[in-house]
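Figure 2 data, in text form.
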Amino acid sequence: MRKQSNGKIRRTESEWEAIIERFEKSGLSAAAFCRREKISKNTFSKWKARLEAGSARRAGFVELGPEVISEAAVAAHGTLEIELPGGVMLRWRA
């Protein structure tokens, strides 16, 4: 955390990750948490959204086992569809 000459505080991404983690464990509303921590609600909301979006992109590889995608399942239903974040749709047709 760096304090600028105008009095504003600059935090790193890792500092915001720790703040968001404290918020999630606090059980408080976002407004109450921000008041307690003396954090701008707008800045908090922007960082929370940014970190959530980043973690969705970093989710990485997800293995789907044979119980999810099997020839029998696709044949029984005709198609198998999996909707991914961002609106991407994967379809398997029998």
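Caption note: The mean pLDDT is 80.
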